[in-house]
Amino acid sequence: MNTERPACDLHTHSTASDGTLSPSELVKNAHQHGVQILALTDHDTTKGLAEAEATAVGNGMEFVPSIELSVTWCRKVLHIVGLNIDPEAKSLQKGISRLQVTRERRAEEMGRLLALHGIIGAYEGARDFAGDGTITRTHFARLLVERGYCRSVREVFKHYLIKGKPGHTTVSWARLEEAIEWIHEAGGVAVLAHPMRYHVTDTWLHGAVTAFKAAGGTGIEVVCGNSNPKDIGTSAEFARRYQLMGSAGSDYHGPENASIQFGALAEFPYGIEPIWQVWRR
Ligand code: AMP
Ligand code: MN
Ligand code: MN
Ligand code: MN
Question: Which ligand is nearest to the CA of 142?
Answer without folding.
Answer: 1
